[in-house]
Design brief:
- This protein has 780 residues and is α+β, with helices and mostly antiparallel strands.
- It is built from 24 helices and 19 strands.
- The strands form five sheets. It has a six-stranded antiparallel beta sheet with strand order 9-8-7-12-11-10. It has a five-stranded mixed beta sheet with strand order 14-16-17-19-18.
- A hairpin with a 4-residue loop joins strand 16 (684-691) and strand 17 (696-703).
- The chain is elongated.
Length: 780
C-alpha cells in the first residue's frame, strides 16, 4: 500500500474522514451524494477479481479487509461498515467516503485501471439496462442527466448537447460541497470519477442493445485543471426499433425495473399486485401501439409517464429506507455513547491518583470518543487564573507551551468567562466566529493546534468550578450540539472524580503529618507497654499468690468450720443437756451461718481449682433421674421448712447421661437451692428433664419466686455478681452460678436462664447423653 501511496497524491493522505460516510450532514439533511449502486459495483467487482485470481474465499476475505481499512478512517464507530452494508443498494454515501473506497479498491486489487474496469462492467446495472432498453442510443444519451441524477443526487450536475444519430457531447461538474470533501485531492478524486463515468457511458451500447461500445474523446477534464469534465461519444448507426419490438422492450424493462426495485427491499409479497399492474400497463401499451403506430411521440410520452411513476415510487422507498437507516445509526450511537460513559465513569471514580486520572480522561476523549485533541485546564477561583493546561493529541512542543502559560479570566462574556465564570458549556462550530473573544494566549494555542471546531464544558462540583474540559477538531462545523451534550455529561463525571481525588490528596497530606505524631506516640506507647508488661507480670504473680492464699485459707477454714458445725449439732441433739428456747434459737442461727460459710469456702476452693486448671471430670454413665432424686431428697427439709412445694418430673425412658456425678450433683444442688431460697412460702419448685435434638438431656429448674430483672439476666453467671434487689441475708459470695456455668460447659453443655420479675425463673442446662459421650464437645 505504501508503494502505491508514494506514487500518487491520493485522498488517503487525509487520514481520517472529515465528514460522516452516510446518515446526516453536520448541517442537517440526509447524505445522498452517491447511490449504493455505485458502492456495490466497486465491492462486487473487487470480490470477483480477487476470487478469479486467488481462488475461492479470497474475494470475501479481501472485502472484509476493505471494511477494516475504511473503518480505520471513520472516527465514529457507530458508522463503521460491513460487507453486507456496502452491498445494500438502498444506501447513500458521501463522496469523501466513496473516494476512500475507490483508492482502497485499487490498492487491494493491485490494478491501477480498477475504476475504468468497474465502470465498464458494473455501472450499467440491471436497473439502468431495464430503464434504458426501450430507447435508442441518442435518446439514452439525451437522458444522461436524468440517469446520472439517480446515482449522484445533488452532488454532480450533468449536461448533454449536440446529440446526433451517431454522436453526443456529455459533460459533468461537481457541486461546491463535493469539492469541500475532496479538499486538496480534487484532481485525483475527479480522475477516479471521470474514469469510471467514461467507461460506464462507453458501455451503454454494449450493455443495453448488445452493440459495440462507444468511443470517447476527452474535450475537458477536471483532473487536468478544467472546471468540468466533457466528452464526445461516437457509436455505430443503430437500426430503428419496430413498434411491437419496442412494446416488448418496454414490458421487459418495466418488469426488470420493478424486480430490481422491489427485491432489495424485500417486497416479495407485492409481486401479485405488481403482476396485475404490469398486465394492465401492457394492455394499455398494446392498444396505444396498435392504434397509433405512426405516432411515435405518443408512444414515448406513455413510456415516459410509466417510468416516471415507477421512479417516483422508487424514490419514495429509497427515502423511507434512508430515514430508517438514520434512526438505526442514531440508536447505535446513543448506545455506544452510554456504554462509553458508563465504562469511563467507573474508571474515573475508581482512580484517586490525580495525574493518573488526568491521563485516563484525555486518553478516553481522544481514543474512545475519537476527538482530534483533548485538554484539561485547571481554574483558580480566587486568583481567576487558568493554568496547568494538559493536552492529548499534540506535539511535545505544544504540550510544554500549554503547561507554561497562565490565562487570566476576568470578562464573563469572553469565551473563557462563559465556561469558567458563568459555568456554561460552549460549542463553537468555527473558531473564527469567536476569535475576538478568546484570550491572546488561547488564540496562540488554537493557531498552533489548527483547531477549527471545539466544545468546552466546565468541571463543576456544586458551586465550585475546578476547571474546563475541552475537545476540538481540525474541521469546521465538525462538532455539534450532540457533542456538547455528551461532553457536559462526561464533564460532570470528571469533575466528581477530580473532587474525590483532591479530597483523597488532602487526606494523604494530613496522614503525612499524622504519621510523625503516630511515630512519637508509638515510641511512648512502646515504653508504656514495657512498663505495663512488667506491671502485668507482677499482677500475674500477685494473682497466683492470691489464688494460693485463698486456696490455703479456704482449706484451713474447712476443718474448724466442720468442727464448729459438729459441736453445734451435738448441742442441738441434747448431748450437752437440755437447752432453753433462746439457746436453741441461737444455736440454729450458728448452724445456719456455719453451713453458709462452709458453702462459701467450698465455692472459693472450686474457683481456685478452676482458675488453676485443676478441675477435672470423672465421666461415667449415670441415670439422670436417680441423680435428681438424690439432690431433691437432700433439699426436701429445706423446702418444707420454707413451705415450698419441691417436685420432680422425669419422663419414662429418659436416656442416661455421661458426666461427672459429683460435679453435676453440685450444679443441681446450686440451682435447686437458689430456687428454694428465692421462692416464698406457698410457692413451688419443679425439676423437669427432656431429651434435646443435639443428643443431650435438658434439665430445667423452674420456680415461682421473685424473678430476675431483665437488666441483670445477662450478668447472673458472672463471678462475684450479686443482684441488687436480693436481701442482704440471702446474698452469697456470688460464685455458685459462675461455678455451675463452668462445670456445665466442661461437660460440653450450656446453661441459661429465663425470668419474669414477680412470676418466677427458669434455669436450664444441657448435658450429653451416654450415647454422645465419644463425640467432640464445644461450649455453646
Amino acid at each position: 500500500m505504501s508503494d502505491l501511496l508514494s506514487k500518487k497524491h491520493t485522498i488517503l493522505e487525509k487520514g481520517h474522514m472529515a465528514y460522516p460516510p452516510f446518515g446526516v450532514h453536520p448541517q442537517g439533511g440526509l447524505i445522498r451524494d452517491v447511490s449504493g449502486v455505485t458502492v456495490r459495483g466497486n465491492v462486487d467487482y473487487l470480490d470477483e477479481v480477487i476470487e478469479q485470481r486467488d481462488g475461492p474465499g479470497a474475494g470475501a476475505r479481501v472485502v472484509e479487509q476493505l471494511c477494516s481499512l475504511l473503518n480505520e478512517r471513520i472516527r465514529d464507530p457507530t458508522l463503521h461498515v460491513t460487507p453486507a452494508f456496502l452491498r445494500n443498494v438502498w444506501n447513500s454515501y458521501s463522496y469523501e467516503f466513496v473516494m476512500f473506497l475507490a483508492e482502497f479498491c485499487e490498492i487491494l486489487s493491485g490494478d491501477p485501471g480498477f475504476q475504468h474496469k468497474v465502470g465498464r462492467h458494473k455501472f450499467i446495472s440491471p436497473l439502468i439496462q431495464a430503464l434504458a432498453r426501450p430507447f435508442t442510443l441518442p435518446q439514452i444519451y439525451r437522458m444522461f442527466p436524468h440517469f446520472g441524477e439517480k446515482f449522484a443526487k445533488g452532488s454532480i450536475t450533468f449536461g448533454v448537447s449536440d446529440v446526433t444519430e451517431t454522436s453526443a457531447i456529455l459533460r459533468m461538474h461537481f457541486s461546491d460541497h463535493v469539492y469541500e470533501q475532496f479538499g486538496p485531492w480534487r484532481r485525483r478524486c475527479a480522475e477516479n470519477i471521470c474514469q469510471s463515468s467514461k467507461s460506464g457511458l462507453a458501455a451503454v451500447p454494449e450493455k443495453v442493445h448488445r452493440a459495440p461500445p462507444a468511443r470517447i474523446r476527452d474535450l475537458a477534464c477536471i483532473a487536468d485543471g478544467d472546471d468540468r469534465c466533457e466528452w464526445e461519444l461516437t457509436w455505430q448507426p443503430q437500426e430503428s426499433l419496430a413498434p411491437m419490438s419496442v412494446l416488448g422492450m418496454v414490458t421487459g424493462g418495466a418488469v426488470g425495473f420493478l424486480g430490481a426495485l422491489l427485491a432489495p427491499a424485500g417486497f416479495d409479497g407485492m409481486l401479485p399486485w405488481v403482476a396485475t399492474g404490469i398486465g394492465a400497463m401492457v394492455g394499455a401499451l398494446s392498444l396505444a401501439f396498435l392504434s397509433q403506430r405512426r405516432k411515435m411521440m405518443g408512444r414515448e410520452r406513455l413510456i415516459q409517464e410509466q417510468l416516471e411513476s415507477m421512479e417516483a415510487r422508487h424514490e419514495e422507498l429509497r427515502e423511507a429506507y434512508l430515514q430508517q437507516e438514520q434512526v438505526t445509526v442514531e440508536l447505535r450511537r446513543r448506545i455506544n455513547q452510554l456504554t462509553i460513559l458508563h465504562r469511563t465513569g467507573l474508571v474515573f471514580n475508581a482512580t484517586l491518583d490525580r495525574e493518573g486520572l488526568i491521563q485516563q480522561v484525555l486518553q478516553a476523549l481522544v481514543h474512545e470518543l475519537h476527538y482530534d485533541r483533548a485538554m484539561i485546564a485547571f481554574f483558580d477561583q480566587d486568583r481567576r487564573i487558568v493554568s496547568n493546561l494538559r493536552l492529548c493529541g499534540v506535539t511535545e512542543h505544544i504540550s510544554t507551551f500549554a503547561r507554561s502559560i497562565e490565562v487570566p479570566v476576568t470578562d464573563p462574556e469572553s469565551a473563557e468567562g462563559i465556561v469558567l465564570l458563568q459555568g456554561q458549556p460552549l460549542c463553537i462550530g468555527d473558531v473564527r466566529d469567536l476569535w475576538d473573544r478568546l484570550h491572546p494566549l488561547n488564540q496562540q494555542l488554537a493557531f498552533m493546534t489548527k483547531a477549527k471546531s471545539l466544545v468546552s464544558v466546565p468541571l463543576k462540583v456544586q458551586d465550585r468550578i475546578l476547571g474546563a474540559l475541552t475537545v476540538d477538531r481540525t474541521d469546521e462545523q465538525s462538532l455539534s450540539e450532540e457533542d456538547l451534550s455528551l461532553m457536559t455529561t462526561l464533564g460532570n463525571q470528571v469533575a466528581i472524580a477530580f473532587d474525590n481525588a483532591d479530597a483523597y490528596h488532602k487526606i494523604e497530606e494530613l496522614n503525612v503529618g499524622l504519621e510523625a505524631r503516630v511515630r512519637e506516640r508509638t515510641s511512648a506507647l512502646e515504653q508504656l507497654n514495657k512498663d505495663l508488661e512488667g506491671a502485668n507480670l507482677k499482677l500475674k504473680e500477685m494473682d497466683r499468690l492470691k489464688s494460693a492464699f485463698v486456696s490455703i485459707v479456704s482449706h484451713e477454714l474447712r476443718t474448724p468450720m466442720t468442727s464448729i458445725k459438729g459441736y453445734v449439732e451435738n448441742m442441738l441433739d441434747g448431748l450437752t443437756g437440755s437447752l432453753a428456747e433462746r439457746q436453741r434459737r441461737y444455736l440454729e442461727r450458728i448452724r445456719h451461718n456455719s453451713e453458709r460459710l462452709t458453702r462459701m469456702i467450698n465455692e472459693l476452693l472450686d474457683l481456685s481449682r478452676i482458675e488453676a486448671g485443676q478441675m477435672h471430670l470423672q465421666r461415667r454413665p449415670a441415670a439422670a433421674g436417680d441423680l435428681i432424686d438424690e439432690v431433691v431428697e437432700g433439699l426436701q427439709d429445706l423446702a418444707h421448712a420454707k413451705g415450698v412445694d419441691l417436685s420432680v418430673v422425669t419422663p419414662v425412658g429418659a436416656p442416661a447421661i455421661d458426666g461427672d456425678r459429683d460435679k453435676l450433683h453440685q450444679v443441681l444442688t446450686n440451682l435447686i437451692h437458689n430456687a428454694i431460697k428465692f421462692t416464698n412460702s406457698g410457692g413451688r419448685v419443679r425439676i423437669e428433664t427432656a431429651a434435646s435434638r443435639e443428643g443431650c438431656l435438658q434439665v430445667t429448674v423452674a420456680d415461682t419466686g421473685c424473678g430476675i430483672p431483665a437488666s441483670e439476666l445477662d450478668k447472673i453467671f458472672y463471678k462475684f455478681y450479686r443482684g441488687n434487689e436480693v436481701a442482704a441475708e440471702a446474698r452469697g459470695a456470688g460464685l455458685g452460678l459462675a461455678i455451675s456455668k463452668t462445670l456445665v460447659e466442661l461437660h460440653g453443655g450450656r446453661i441459661w436462664a429465663e425470668s419474669q420479675p414477680g412470676a418466677g425463673s427458669r434455669f436450664m442446662f444441657t448435658v450429653p447423653t451416654a450415647g454422645e459421650a465419644s463425640r467432640p464437645r464445644t461450649n455453646a
